Structures are given as structure tokens and as C-alpha cells.
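W.,

You were right to be curious about this one. When I first looked at the sequence I had no strong expectations either way, so I just let the prediction run and decided to look at it fresh. Below is the sequence, 205 residues in total, followed by the output.
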Amino acid sequence: MQPPSLEHPTSTTPSVPRYRRWAVHLALVVACIGSVATSPSPLPPQVNSEYEGAPLGLTTQATTATRHFKVRVSTQEKSFDRVELLLRAEVTARWSPTDPNSHEKPWLLTRLYIPSDNDSGAGPGRGEVLILGKPNQPMTVETLTSDSSECKTDQGCEWTVPLEFELLPHAAEGSVEVEWKVTAEAYAEGATTLPKGFTVQVSEP
């Protein structure tokens, strides 16, 4: 009897033609390039500042209030194209009806906007509406606005921004306590690193 052969069996898998291997390789390269091209661009360098204002009150007799604040961006070098400013106001309100058994839910309108230098520019807009719930239950709403400017190194740039509150009419008698804070984010468009002395500050006049 002959001993079994120790040779490995010959593979029956056909060889892949060279042109097909190159085609697969080229497809992978194109896919990688497409993945890189569609990936999101990194955000420009940015700084932020937060300001918390004093609480205010509204009633069904005094239904409106406005708070003005300033946003200032400073820089010591002009290594960017423009400053993109994003403002975010977070408002928390508590409704206290005169009649504790009242089930009405009044509406609080909040508007945050940057006035335009011309009549055709952006106005107050429609704002954000917060429907107040149970008495003394804190309810929160957030509203945003944005703008851009070319900041000079010797002057910087500055915005005066109104934040408006309005208790919409026809509500049950009562009062609303409002707490608010504003966050400003300033982006140095066109820069890859944070410019020297690039800061943003929020304050009330």
C-alpha cells in the first residue's frame, strides 16, 4: 500500500486578472477621496461669554419689558476675514395667577434681534412663544440671532442688542417672573488659530 501524499491539493480558484485588480484599487481610492471631500469643515476658532441679567416682572397690567445689552469683540491682530456673532438668550418664566384655581395658560413672547443700520434690514421678527404651565412651575425657552462684521484691530466691533418680553393679552390676571441670560459666541472666520487678543464680552449699558 502506498502512503498518502503529503502534497497540498492544488487550488481550483481562478486567478484574478490584473486589470480587475487595478479597477478595484481605483474604486477604493475614489471612494476615499469622496469621503474626505464630503466630511464637514472644521469650525473657525471661537470665544464665548455669558451674561446673566437681573430678573424682571410682567403683569397683566404691565405686559411688556425690554432689556438692552452690549456685545463687544476685541482683537489685537487681523488674521481673519470677518467676525461671525451668534447670540443665544435663555429665558425662564414662572406664572403666578391672581386666582390660584385658574387653569388658563398665558403666552410669553420673547424677541432677540440685532437692529439693522437701514430700514430694509432685519427687524424684531416673530420671536419665540412660551406657553406657561402650572402656577409657579418654571418654563424655559431659547431664542437665537446672529450677525457678522469686519472688526478693525484699533476699534473692534460692537453691537447693541434688545431683548424684548411681552405677555400676550387676554390672559387671566396674574404676574410672570422672568429670569434671563445671554451667551455670545464670536467666530474668527478665515483663521485657523485663535487670533491674539480675540475676546468677546457681554454687558448692560
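Here's what jumped out at me. The first strand starts at residue 46 and ends at 52. And, maybe more interesting for your project: The radius of gyration is 30 Å.

Coffee later to discuss?

I.
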